Amino acid sequence: MIQILFICAFLALLYIKSVSVILAVIFILFAVDFKKFIKRSKRVIYSVFLFNLGVSLGYILMAYFKHFSPWHYIIYINLKVFMMTYFVFWFFEKVNIVKFFSFSKDFSYLLTMTLSQIYSYQKTFRDFRDAFRARVVSLREKEKDFISNTFMFFFKKAYKDSKERALAMRARGFFDE
Fold this sequence. Notes:
Layout: H1 2-14, H2 19-32, H3 37-66, H4 71-94, H5 97-100, H6 105-135, H7 139-171
């Protein structure tokens, strides 16, 4: 039942076309979640910043060459992405995500794989960060190297892990043709 309510609410939010209605929904989310609104808003902004920046810059560039004002759409799309992401973060903090997807064996399996990978990567990153802080005296000088090396490590690890997971999923019938 909760899945149907979430999907209906999510679809209803997707169909909003007015900036003023989006602002009203954001205000309602603020009213419902006022204690954690700032903290959750920061999480939302951190998670969608690059996407929004890329879309916004691309649209501004296109608008410049086609000679039209992009600002209404830029405001609309950025507010909408913020609203949708905030709603999803808020909802899944209130609802147990594992129970939410328990209606499907395949979804449960995919969720378990995803969560285990997320937790594994988080722990590895914390270990890297703690080791870096413990061994380096001047953090600012070495931070750029740490970030690039850590990024490359996780990129290679994700590539290797994705191959292994694809084989495991194929063995369980996920890619039946």
